[in-house]
Specification:
Length: about 450
Amino acid sequence: MSVLTLSIVVVFILGYACIALESFTRVNKAGVALMMFVATWTLFMIDPSSYIPNFSHEALNALIEKHLGSAGTTLFFLMGAMTIVEIVDINGGFNFVRNALRTTSKRKLLWRIVLITFFFSAILDNMTTSIVMVMVLRKLVDNKTDRMIFASLVIIAANSGGAFSPIGDVTTIMLWNKGLLTAMGVITEIFLPSLVSAVVPALIVQYLLRGRLDAPASQSVESEQSFTSIERKTIFCLGVGGLCFVPIFHNLTGLPPFVGILLVLGVLWITIEIFYSKERYRHDNVRSRCVSKVLSRIDMSTILFFLGILMAVSCLEEIKVLEATGQWLNDVSNGNHYLVTGAIGVVSSLVDNVPLVAGCMGMYTDLVGDFARDGLFWQLLAYCAGVGGSILIVGSAAGVVVMGLERISFGWYMKRISWIAAAGYFAGLFTYWLQNYIVALF
């Protein structure tokens, strides 16, 4: 390895460490990721001819544009999906969830939370689903300890539900956009392991819950929003139904998934504007919830973080470091993909799974055998990187969000929940192996 290549790797590792230690350094990971992007490619330019045969500035520009275009498809998809979910939420589209969860039985509430979160996360994303469910829990559970337990199950169910859907978790979105997984492939192969990884923790936790909840105070959901019930349901159906339609649109037209997301956003935007044009909303504060206002609330730091990470990883890909690392992992594990991806899942509970998955995508360029589209490795990676983040509360976006909303400490979660989440993770991994073993017999 040349000194220049080593320097690029060192810069990436230092940046990665700062991202992993964000909760301690208090430095936003988006800024670090952007610095990684610029620093790695600047070092690359010291001697680009050693990496690009017949180097020219035109060839370099084409290379950067190729990687930027690849990253852009993921970024536009995320921005569109985040906007759609925010529109549905802010206009009362999720109010019915609270009504569906109402019960005085702790165990019934536990299972309703797990199942609704699991399937919602597959349609929305695990971070947004977690926010919605925690807000609902605050209106249903007064006891702080009970609510922390329920919120911990939200983290586990959200990460598990996002793993089996092409649009449920940023890692599966990345793999799907890259063409390494198909929508039908990830759903059919990963659904059962993901479900097991959510059900096993729920089975364990239900024996830790005792007694009943106080009857939740009756509240008028209708009075909380200016839109009528029919209008809110229309917004919900267009938003959530549209997200479900995106994989179908992709299969029908062959266009990239982000095009389908933008189609859904456009339809929802026009519908909202039609509602606003009605006379009763002309002077109502509902105008503060219009789409143009929602767009200003989208978390751009998350988008810029993904941009920085994906472009920094693309530099490692160009200097062939990722390819060499992938070959080394294969040699060390003797080609055991369960060992490699299982370890990646555990590591993803400590560090962000986005750079982990982005790195794996650059490691394996020969897309044949287990590395072909819908191959064993990519399916395992989608499951492990998504579900493994539940083992520690800082291991996923859902965990970090719930940690902040409910003030759950790292130590409390690790002591009471981590082993439960790990049990679900390994149970799901075993289910995937058993599922493939049975299929191979026939």
